[in-house]
Specification:
Helix 1 crosses helix 5. The chain is an alpha/beta fold and 382 residues long. The protein has a six-stranded antiparallel β-sheet, covered by helices on one side. The chain has a six-stranded mixed β-sheet with strand order 8-12-13-3-14-15, with helices on both faces. Strands 9-10-11 form a three-stranded antiparallel β-sheet. Helices cover 31% and strands 24% of the residues. The chain has 15 helices and 15 strands. The chain has a domain of 109 residues.
Length: 382
């Protein structure tokens, strides 16, 4: 499925949002404008829809409670609302809307104040219904999270539950054994990335690693070979690479010896090759040389063209190198700007779109509008 439009009310930085989305969308903005919070909308819906250990209450609690989710500028109406319009591969039009807030009395429970689902314009669900009014405790759960209640729109629930987010932190992977810490649910920072690779069927794993190997041979100096390995004593999965060396069997290194850039590029490529669910990428340029970063949009597009089913990718970035790629679609660029009443998100103006059509890059046309105008004064503050 592809999410065509997103509406928000009182979500974190955003008091009000109504914005179209493309199959590949670049989200640009200065620090603390709300890029991560924008992506978190889709993680939030995923956390609700998960059949194992999901649900509205857990999704809200995991983010620090309702007060952490609600926009500080929400004065007259404190309820939080999310609405998405989607299209399935077969052309079916879906719409899902959720509004929730505090009960306002007693136990101050978080209650669903509205939940609505339509399929090709036909309403399949509207809450609260008569059963909810009879028993308000039912409103602590969405129907999206309930298998017995979402039968008519389970395709929508499954799609949202399969959303992928990976913002790999190389040190967590390199020092995983020494850290020995608990891996966060859904492993957003890649601490369990190797276990994820190990769980993949051998045929699919080999195919993906072969494709990644070809990229690394170009991107990493003296790189020759990438392989999956499993420790014969502990059973721990590993990735190993071989570099050029004067001795034929020398030059092998495991992931704890990889550079940060190699690990992040490897994880990025794996995520792009893995499945067809909604993919959220946060600053994929980190740790990578600018000559590699500029090629990321083209790599994504090439993988998409070869895939059986095109997936939707949302990317947050403020990388000049990445946004200088001439292949980026102007219609797939969103700009977030902080304002007096919360952050504002917009598409490109006619003037910006025209400039890009005439050969300028998104980096040249749009990125300057996201720069912090006070940045040049930073040294004066010291």
């Amino acid at each position: 499925m592809i999410i065509n439009n997103l509406k928000l009310k009182n979500w974190k930085n955003f008091k009000s949002v109504d914005i179209p989305l493309s199959d590949t969308t670049y989200i640009i903005g200065p620090n603390a404008a709300g890029k991560s919070n924008f992506l978190d909308v889709f993680r939030f819906l995923r956390d609700i829809a998960k059949q194992e250990g999901g649900g509205l209450q857990k999704a809200v609690t995991a983010r620090g409670g309702l007060s952490r989710l609600r926009c500080l500028h929400a004065r007259s109406d404190p309820r939080i609302a999310i609405e998405i319009d989607l299209t399935s591969p077969s052309g079916v039009k879906w719409s899902y809307a959720l509004e929730f807030g505090s009960e306002g009395k007693g136990a101050q429970r978080i209650l669903v104040t509205q939940e609505r689902v339509t399929r090709d314009g036909v309403e399949l669900l509207r809450r609260p219904d008569k059963d909810d009014r009879r028993d308000r405790t039912r409103l602590i759960q969405t129907h999206l999270e309930q298998i017995l209640a979402n039968e008519k729109f389970r395709d929508l629930s499954i799609f949202l539950s399969e959303t992928t987010y990976l913002h790999l932190v190389p040190q967590l992977l390199k020092y995983n054994q020494q850290i020995g810490g608990q891996i966060l649910e859904d492993d957003p920072f890649g601490q369990g990335f190797l276990e994820r690779v190990a769980r993949t069927s051998p045929r699919s794993r080999e195919s993906r690693l072969n494709k990644i190997e070809k990229v690394l041979q170009i991107a990493v100096p003296q790189f020759q070979e990438l392989a999956f390995d499993q420790d014969e004593f502990t059973g721990r999965p590993h990735l190993k690479v071989r570099f050029e060396h004067f001795r034929p069997n020398a030059g092998w290194q495991r992931e704890d010896q990889f550079s940060d850039g190699t690990l992040r590029l490897l994880a990025l490529l794996w995520s792009l090759l893995e499945g067809d669910s909604l993919l959220l990428l946060e600053e994929p340029e980190l740790s990578l040389n600018s000559s590699i970063v500029v090629e990321i949009p083209e790599m994504m597009e090439k993988i998409q063209r070869r895939a059986k089913r095109r997936r939707q990718i949302l990317i947050s970035t403020h990388s000049e190198a990445l946004l200088s790629n001439p292949g980026i679609n102007a219609l797939g660029t969103l700009v977030i700007s902080p304002g007096e009443n919360g952050s504002v998100i917009r598409g490109l103006t006619e003037r910006e779109a025209l400039a890009i059509q005439n050969g300028f890059s998104v980096a040249e046309v749009v990125l300057p509008s996201s720069h912090n105008r006070s940045a040049k004064q930073l040294s004066l503050a010291l």
